[in-house]
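Deliverable D2.4 — example input (structure tokens):
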């Protein structure tokens, strides 16, 4: 019995559950509208749910055309996660973000998604991409282009913003509980650096 394969399969098939959890949390918070007319954390949860479900569907693709359609859906979440993450950090640290900056973040995410949709023609993000079977799952093998590293830079901007905003909010905080919360969030937002560096290498 291959326990490694069983564990991998188990992890992959928990992805839809994680996606549903994101949707549930996002919907609950969206109804509360804690931050006025919008709730950036809700949108962050929805974008994460799209990415998680898209990734699950991608791993279960056997047809290349279906694979491309699924990745288009998956990257809708991937492209908007940085924008909503920045707005969430700004909300929780009470950092004022002008409407123009919010519009710019949405425009960057939307533009990157459109670039991804046209990638099979222009190859700005991937020079080439193939779908290959591995242990019963479809795995993408790709050669990255310059646009891919722009996406990584977008995610890097989120982590850099977190490194600035959370310590600033921690210094301004007047209660022990809020200081602990900001410290926890700061540490949490440093963990993705490992993943980012691994992907970039």
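Example output (designed residues):
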């Amino acid at each position: 019995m291959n326990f490694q394969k069983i564990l991998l399969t188990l992890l992959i098939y928990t992805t839809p559950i994680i996606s549903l959890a994101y949707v549930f949390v996002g919907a609950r918070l969206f109804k509360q509208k804690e931050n006025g007319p919008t709730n950036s954390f809700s949108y962050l949860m929805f974008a994460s749910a799209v990415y998680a479900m898209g990734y699950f569907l991608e791993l279960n693709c056997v047809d290349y055309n279906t694979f491309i359609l699924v990745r288009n859906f998956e990257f809708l979440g991937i492209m908007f996660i940085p924008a909503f993450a920045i707005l969430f950090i700004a909300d929780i640290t009470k950092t004022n973000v002008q409407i123009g900056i919010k519009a710019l973040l949405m425009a960057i995410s939307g533009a990157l998604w459109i670039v991804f949709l046209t990638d099979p023609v222009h190859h700005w993000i991937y020079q080439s991409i193939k779908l290959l079977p591995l242990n019963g799952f479809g795995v993408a093998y790709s050669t990255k282009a310059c646009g891919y590293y722009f996406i990584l830079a977008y995610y890097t901007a989120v982590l850099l913003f977190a490194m600035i905003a959370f310590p600033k909010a921690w210094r301004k905080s007047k209660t022990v509980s809020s200081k602990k919360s900001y410290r926890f969030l700061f540490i949490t937002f440093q963990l993705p650096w490992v993943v980012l560096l691994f992907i970039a290498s």
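The longest strand covers residues 126-134.
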